[in-house]
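Continuing from the previous page of notes. For each protein in this section, the sequence appears first, followed by its structure tokens. Read the first protein now.
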Amino acid sequence: MSVKRIVKTRQNKIELNIGNLTLLEGKNSENGHKGNSSAGCKDHAIKAEMSYRGSSSKITRIIAADYKESFGENEISSRGSQIAKLLDMHSRY
């Protein structure tokens, strides 16, 4: 299955869209949980400031830089398409 197909298949389930991918490591976690669950259901601006900006993962820092005010359905779908294009360019799949 191609990355483009995955993005299109999941458009009705925005939380599963590759554009919603954020990588967080334990050192950014206030509550001791590792990964994305550590950010919880906080407002995007709070997550960006507390977790995303300080991430050691470039793909996560970009969310904080490029999506300062909001990161809703439109932004997630757009970012998913951008990630799919990059994966197509840099992989042989």
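Done with the first. The second protein uses the same format. Note its length before scrolling.
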Amino acid sequence: MSEDINRKESARERRRQAFEQEVASRAEDLQFLEEETELWQASSRAYNGRRREENRQAWSDFHAGQAERLRRALEELLSHHTQQAEKYAKQPEGAT
């Protein structure tokens, strides 16, 4: 009978140790996942920051280029209308 009790106690001790090992393993896994999550979040923040900066620069370049294109187009249009105004101003009355 004492032998049965010892076997049961031994089995309980092995189960307890296995359980504690499982808990420790899961705690390590959780710690690893938390560290991985922190690294991923930092990486995502850095990537998003670079992406925002690239987009900001691209929009700045686009608007600067568009402003230059519009300036040239408007200067040409202004020049054309100025010439037409001068042309019609020099014509005698009644001339078409």
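What the second structure shows: Residues 1-90 form one domain. Helices lie at 2-90. We return to this in next week's lecture.
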